[in-house]
Write a structure and sequence with these properties.
The protein is α+β, with helices and mostly antiparallel strands. The strands form three sheets. Strands 1, 2, 3, 4, 5 and 10 form a six-stranded antiparallel sheet that branches. It is globular, with a radius of gyration of 14 Å. The chain starts with a strand and ends with a strand.
């Protein structure tokens, strides 16, 4: 199944953490990284702390969405992820943005990821690797990019 994973960090060596997460995704059994965006520097949204480093990966995986979520959380934990409060600064954050065309709404998982279409730090790297992507139940990402243009999102490297 084709899935998109959002990656972000703003504590410690955030850039190294994002790059390590991409490497770890590529090493997962039954998963191939199809494409990765460049790295983006963004100001925190509904959060605090230093700027974030963000990226998006497109993967092809044999994991079901709940297995994939568990693996993503294991990668976060390997980077010392703590969740002291909602939207706390983080050493690494991996979000399952899309899982094929599926709509999932359970206590542990919501796909498409809520508010992804309102976040420049998601849309800019996602548009880089999938400019014609349509978010199921929401619409084409190109329709939402102008709505987040005021959010500071700078490609780095």
């Amino acid at each position: 199944m084709i899935a998109y994973v959002g990656i972000g960090a703003n504590l410690g060596d955030a850039q190294a953490s994002v790059l390590d997460a991409l490497r770890r995704l590529a090493l997962l059994d039954g998963t191939a990284v199809i494409e990765t965006s460049g790295l983006y520097r963004t100001a925190p949204v509904d959060s605090s702390g230093p700027d974030y480093i963000n990226a998006v990966a497109c993967i092809d995986t044999t994991f079901d969405p709940y297995q994939l979520l568990a693996v993503l959380q294991e990668i976060e934990q390997a980077h010392g992820r703590e969740r002291p409060y909602r939207n706390a600064p983080r050493t690494l954050d991996l979000d399952l943005l899309l899982y094929g065309e599926q709509h999932i709404a359970t206590e542990s998982l919501t796909v498409p990821h809520p508010r992804m279409h309102e976040r420049g730090f998601v849309l800019a790297p996602l548009a880089e690797i999938a400019p014609d992507l349509v978010i199921p139940g929401v619409g084409p990402i190109r329709d939402y990019l102008p709505l987040v243009a005021s959010q500071a999102v700078d490609k780095i490297g």
